[in-house]
Amino acid sequence: MNVQDTDKLQEGAESKQEAPEQLSRPSKAPPPMQADQRPPIERGAHLLALSTLKNAEIPFVVAGAYALHLYTGIYRDTKDLDIFLKREHVERAMESLGSMGFQTNMHDPVWIAKAYANDEYFADLIFSSGNGVAIVDDHWIERANPGVVHGLPILVAPAEDIIWSKAFVCERERFDGTDINHLILARGKQMDWKHLMMRFEPHWEVLLAHLTFYRFSYPGQRDHVPRWVWDELLERARNQHNEPEKKKLCRGMLIAKGQYGVDVEHWGYSDARLEEVPTYRDYYKKDQASDQGLTGPDEND
Known about the structure:
By secondary structure, this protein is of the alpha/beta class.
């Protein structure tokens, strides 16, 4: 696999910087690849979407089930193709896919558009996380790894940025923490942890929570998370105190809006997405104004 071929070069550079504990045990190699079981019609739909965007020279990376398969060997039977791209390129991507017969729509202006090949198979055009935090920027493209999907060379989203995006998916019916654990197990030794720590500012507690789940899940591979990361996060936690000015703020809405809705609707807490995430707040206000007939469709473009 192209993604895994980069490991040896990265390991040689990173091994010189690792702490003694990091070198005390060998890394666990990624598990064997599970076979891709997608039917030909699904492969064709996804290949058409990818080749269309490549031919249009639209910068994008592949994430979701395909990236998980390339990085960890785990095959997941999903009907969708997750394509991550910058917001400024979404409209052109929709136009290009529309010219090839895809039915496109802006599903949610905060984070996702969709392109349907038919009722069953489609591509998600993702430009942020649903809470507006993990915005797709140049780092997603510049730090991507080469890969191949159905014979087509593509770029695979960086494992660090995939973790950043998935970390906020903690709903009762969907929790992406297991994907994060598998990515760290397969790629932790090669990951850029400084970049990951930067991504989680100012939401470092979310990273600490997921790393704790990883530490519990894989007691024999705890060294896949560098010691300095633990030291830094735990030191922050030790020095953290209540913030009186945020007594009625619920950041749970950033990770599980379905489960923390009661806090906002009935207990008087404010929604952290509206208070602390400008991207979410701006598009939420536009959507609310549009619903009340205060703005026309042009203002939402």
